[in-house]
Write a structure and sequence with these properties.
The chain has helices at about 5-30, 30-45, 55-80, 110-115, 120-130, 135-145, 150-165, 175-190, 190-200, 225-240, 300-305; strands spanning about 200-210, 220, 245-250, 250-260, 265-275, 275-285. By secondary structure, it is of the alpha+beta class.
């Protein structure tokens, strides 16, 4: 490779990699796989004769989208046997971060990514390219090898499915931060009355352990059950010496639990709607947290508490 072409590739990577990651992550819900898609896309791009490339960004988008579709087809089969609730790998970003490109932070929320699981890989790709990245149907058709009209129909069908359950986060950022701060403070203090006041009547608590770490076997529904479970969870966290650190998870307020040595235990995202907590999503599966730093041995911590 000539020095000039290497320089152009480096510039192209700097300008395109964030957008490609945003597409792949929204498609797959996996940070590591999204990063692999970006890398594989550039590897395949380099195999193309430079004289045949008119629009490098468009070609990279096509490669990344098709790779994501193929990976998602395989992942959907594996998820049928997943133990417990499946949640995306958490992305610790706020709504100004690169992965929330085009000011679409809600399109990386855990609620939204879980909702997209109801779409086929092709529908998901068309829907995201249109809704989150504002591609026209002609461009989308070239990427997924369908006619523009077919893509329009796929997008409309996907939008009908999504709009019925699309999460809404109209509360301001500052209000969400305040509500979530008071929410976890109440849970730590064991203040059930305060928790019930902050929880929506139909609140849901999800736990993703994937069979690799202790977690809920099934979602808990209803503010009373969720409040009791959270008080018990925070009591256990206190007993093992864990501390909570406020963070933004997939563009929504949340927290991470850190062990006594600072190792990560789990990550929690919170959905706030109409001034109340609508959903709490806890990811404790270590296979989904490794990209965030050193991990705590949850079973060992619990065992030490009991001994």
């Amino acid at each position: 490779m000539t020095g000039d072409r290497k320089r152009r590739l480096e510039e192209l990577f700097r300008s395109e990699s964030d957008r490609l990651f945003g597409i792949a992550y929204r498609m797959l819900g996996r940070v590591g796989e999204a990063e692999e898609v970006v890398q594989d896309s550039f590897v395949r791009y380099q195999r193309v004769d430079p004289e045949e490339v008119r629009e490098p960004g468009a070609l990279l988008t096509t490669i990344a989208t098709r790779l994501s579709i193929d990976r998602l087809k395989s992942a959907r089969v594996a998820r049928e046997d997943y133990v417990g609730a499946w949640l995306p790998e958490p992305l610790l970003v706020d709504d100004t971060d690169v992965a929330a490109e085009a000011e679409q932070a809600d399109s990386i929320s855990m609620a939204f990514l879980v909702l997209l699981e109801s779409l086929s890989p092709l529908e998901r790709a068309v829907f995201l390219l249109r809704e989150a990245f504002d591609y026209d149907y002609a461009a989308i058709g070239e990427i997924v090898e369908r006619t523009p009209e077919n893509c329009r129909q796929l997008a409309l069908r996907a939008r009908r499915q999504v709009d019925e359950r699309r999460p809404r986060f109209e509360t301001s950022r500052q209000e969400r931060e305040d509500i979530v701060s008071r929410f976890f403070a109440a849970a730590q203090e064991g203040d059930s009355d305060a928790l019930l006041e902050l929880l929506a009547a139909d609140a849901v608590l999800y736990g993703d352990g994937g069979g690799k770490a202790p977690a809920l076997g099934a979602p808990l529904h209803g503010r009373e059950r969720v409040a009791r479970a959270l008080v018990a969870l925070l009591r256990t966290a206190s007993e093992v010496g864990a501390r909570l650190e406020p963070i933004w998870v997939n563009g929504q307020p949340g927290t991470r639990f850190l062990g006594p040595d600072g190792a990560l235990i789990n990550v929690v995202a919170v959905d706030v709607l109409d001034g109340r907590v609508q959903a709490v999503r806890s990811v404790v599966n270590p296979e989904k947290l490794g990209h965030l730093g050193p991990l705590a041995d949850v079973r060992a911590l619990l065992g030490a508490r009991r001994s």
